[in-house]
Write a structure and sequence with these properties.
heterodimer; A: about 0% helix; B: about 110 residues; 4-stranded antiparallel sheet; 11 strands; about 50% strand
Chain lengths: ~120, ~110
C-alpha cells in the first residue's frame, strides 16, 4: 500500500536561514509526489509536484523539493525562510488508480509538519 | 480567476439537524473531492466524483452523502450531524490529465 511519512511534527527556523521539511514515501510503482501548504483556517495550496524528469523540482514561493529514489524521500526546501512561510505543510503521494470507472488515484497525505519561522 | 469556491465559510448547526455544504468550481475539472480535516490533522478523503461516477471511501459513515448535479457544483450532505462531525470540510478538484488537486478555502462546521 502507498504511504507517506513526515517524521517531524514541527520545524523551527530563524528567518533568513535555509529550511528543510522532510518526507519519505512508500509506493509500489512510480511515485507521484506533491507538497501542499495550509495557512490557518484556509484550504490547502499546491506548492509543487514530482511526476518524472529532473529530481530537483521548483515550485511556488521559492520552494523546491528534491526527489531521491534510493532514499525514497521528497524533502521540501527553501534557501532563505520568511516569517510568512510559517504554516502547516503536507506531503502527499498519489495512490495507484483503481480499476474501472476511469477515476484517477487519490492523494494520500502525510500527517503534516508545522513550520515556524521566527524573526 | 479560475477557482474553487465553498459556501458557507462557517456553518453552525445543531446536533442531529441536517446540513448541506456547497462547492463550486470554475476550473471545469472532471474530478471533485470532499475531505474532512480535524484540528491540523491530515485531510481525510470522504468521497469523490469522477464526472458523474460516485466513489465512496470504505470508512466514510453513511451519515455523509454527496450530490453532483453538474460539472460545476458538488454538495456534501450530513444527515444527522454529531459532535464528532465538527471539522473543516475541504472541497478539491482535479483534471484527469493533470495530477495536482486544487482546494477551496474550506467550510468550518460547528455542531452544538
Amino acid at each position: 500500500a502507498q504511504s507517506v511519512a513526515q517524521p517531524e511534527d514541527q520545524v523551527n527556523v530563524a528567518e533568513g536561514n535555509p529550511l528543510t521539511v522532510k518526507c519519505t514515501y512508500s509506493v509500489s510503482g512510480n511515485p507521484y509526489l506533491f507538497w501542499y501548504v495550509q495557512y490557518p483556517n484556509r484550504g490547502l495550496q499546491f506548492l509543487l509536484k514530482y511526476i518524472t524528469g529532473d529530481n530537483l523540482v521548483k515550485g511556488s514561493y521559492g520552494f523546491e523539493a528534491e526527489f531521491n529514489k534510493s532514499q525514497t524521500s521528497f524533502h521540501l526546501k527553501k534557501p532563505s525562510a520568511l516569517v510568512s512561510d510559517s504554516a502547516l505543510y503536507f506531503c502527499a503521494v498519489r495512490d495507484a488508480p483503481s480499476g474501472g470507472g476511469g477515476s484517477q488515484g487519490n492523494l494520500i497525505f502525510g500527517k503534516g509538519t508545522k513550520l515556524s519561522v521566527k524573526p | 480567476d479560475a477557482m474553487v469556491i465553498q459556501n458557507p465559510r462557517y456553518q453552525v448547526t445543531q446536533f442531529g439537524k441536517p446540513v448541506t455544504l456547497s462547492c463550486s468550481q470554475t476550473l471545469n475539472h472532471n474530478v471533485m473531492y470532499w475531505y474532512q480535516q480535524k484540528s491540523s490533522q491530515a485531510p481525510k478523503l470522504l468521497f469523490h466524483y469522477y464526472d458523474k461516477d460516485f466513489n465512496n471511501e470504505a470508512d466514510t459513515p453513511d451519515n455523509f452523502q454527496s450530490r453532483r448535479p453538474n460539472t460545476s457544483f458538488c454538495f456534501l450532505d450530513i444527515r444527522s450531524p454529531g459532535l464528532g462531525d465538527a471539522a473543516m470540510y475541504l472541497c478539491a478538484t482535479s483534471e484527469l490529465a493533470f495530477h495536482e488537486q486544487f482546494f477551496g478555502p474550506g467550510t468550518r462546521l460547528t455542531v452544538l
